[in-house]
Write a structure and sequence with these properties.
The protein is an alpha+beta fold. Helices cover 43% and strands 20% of the residues. The strands form three sheets. Strands 1-8-2-5 form a four-stranded mixed beta sheet. Strands 3-4 form a two-stranded antiparallel sheet.
Amino acid sequence: MLFLDSDEFVDNDFCNAVASAIVNERYNGYWLTYTNHFLGAKLEHGVAQRKLALFRVGSGLYERIEEDGWSGLDMEIHEHPIIEGRVGQISVPIDHRDYKGLAKFVERHKDYALWEARRYLQLQTEVGEWKRFTPRQRFKYRYLARWWYPLFYFLFAYFMKRGFLDRAAGFHYAYYKSWYFHTIRLLIHEHSEFRNQ
């Protein structure tokens, strides 16, 4: 099964990579990477967006997040399938053509930040959830509320992952993503302070 959004486009190279990969029964699922666009520019560097959006029928189910009490969002980008067996990666990226503009980007990430903060707080009482996380998820939720995490993300994305090669768009994208993580951190602390009053 391959899951694609309406603003995600594949080319022949991607299709050929998938055709070659799925005949190998060694893997039951594949991480897919995405090329994003921001402020009218194609981002070829920085932290790559990725999703586990290709897997064999019957090899796993999407995780169930109990969010009915605090979220009305369709947050499938945060949920991921729990795959039985090994997971590989398709290196040819999918073109994610999100051309909705900066205002929509900020509005969407405000909603995502609220979701992430509440998910973080939920995980403090659901220790068993950590077993199913990828190493990347464990790192994020372990350090998300630390003061240095937004700065770490910016430095990692802009310098270590060479976001600076995407020029102005690369800088602004790394900046806004670090703003996103800073917002999550403030929401977590705001909720914690309110609860302690």
